[in-house]
Amino acid sequence: MTQSTQDAAAPRQSHDGLVVQQFGSQASAYVSSIVHAQGADLQQMVEIAARTSDARAIDLGCGGGHVAYGVAPVVASVVAYDLSAGMLEAVAAEAAKRGFGNLTTQQGAAEKLPFADGEFDVVLSRYSAHHWQNVRQGIREARRVVKTGGTAVISDVIAPEVPVSDTFLQTFEMLRDPSHVRNYSVAEWTEIAARAGFAVVGVTRRRLPLNFDAWVGRMRTPEVQVAAIRALQAAMSEPVRQHFAIEPDGSFTIDQAVFELVAV
C-alpha cells in the first residue's frame, strides 16, 4: 500500500476534534492576542452584560477568554466554556493572574451544555458560532440555559446577502481553517434565534478589516491553501472585489454583527 493510499484509508477525526486540534495548540497565542482582546463589538457585549445586576454569565466558545475577562468585573460570575482543554487551562491561568475569582471554566460543546435550565442571566458568544457543527442546536441550548427574560449576545462574522460574495467568503474561510462550518447572514441569524425562542432586539453591523498575513498566520494555514485563497481573490469579479475591499497585499474587509437577543 502506498503512502497516499494509507493516508486516504486513515480514519478521520470528528469535527470537534478538528476544532480542538486547530485551536488548542495555540491557546497562549489567543489569550495574548491584541486583535482578539479589543474591538467595538467586545465593548458592546460588556456594556450589555452590565445592564443585569448580579448576573450569572457564560461565554460560549470562549477561545482566549476575552469576553469572559471583559465581563468578569461587571457580573456576579462568568463561566468560560470551550471545547479545548488546552484553551481553558490558558484562560484559567490568565484569569488567576488578573485576579478574577468569579471566573470559572468548563469544557464541552455548544450543542450540549452541562447546565440546568435557566441557570444563567446572560449568554455571550464571540467569533465561535461559525465553528459549531449545529448552530441551531447550539442556540436552542443557549435558550435553555438562560432564564426567561434573560439576554444572549452573539458576535460573529456574517455572510453577505449576495450569493456569489457569500460563496467566496465561505471558501476563503474553509481554506484558511478547515474547522470552519459557516458564517450566517443576518436573515439566517434572525430565523435561527426566533426558532430557538429568542426575540432579536438589536443588530449592530460593522465592517471588519483583516490583514491577510496575520489572518492566515494565526491559523498557520499551509502555503498551498494560502496560494489558493490568493488565486480566488485574483479571479473575483469586480463587484465581489469591491465588496471585500481587496487590497494589493490580499488584505480585505468582511461584515460583522452583534445580535442582542432576549429569551421569550
Description:
There is one protein chain. This protein has about 260 residues and is α/β, with parallel strands linked by helices. Helix content is about 45%, strand content about 25%. It has twelve helices and seven strands.
The helix count comes to: 12
How many strands, which pairing sense, and closed or not: the largest β-sheet?
Answer: 7 strands, mixed
List unreliable stretches of 5+ residues. 1-11
Give the strand content: 15-25%
Strand tally is 7
Provide the succession of SSEs.
HHHHEHEHEEHEHHEHHHE
What is the end-to-end distance? 58 Å
Label the overall shape: globular
Structural class: alpha/beta
Query: Could you estimate the helical fraction of the residues in percent?
Result: 40-55%
The residue-averaged pLDDT reads 90
Major sheet: order of its strands? 3-2-1-4-5-7-6
Topology:
Elements: H1 3-9, H2 15-24, H3 27-32, H4 40-49, E1 56-60, H5 66-71, E2 77-82, H6 85-98, E3 103-107, E4 120-126, H7 135-145, E5 146-157, H8 163-176, H9 186-196, E6 198-210, H10 212-218, H11 223-235, H12 238-244, E7 252-263
Helix pairs in contact: 7-9, 8-11
Provide key terms for this protein:
264 residues; seven-stranded mixed sheet; 44% helix; disordered N terminus
Summed up, what is this model?
The chain has 264 residues and is of the alpha/beta class.
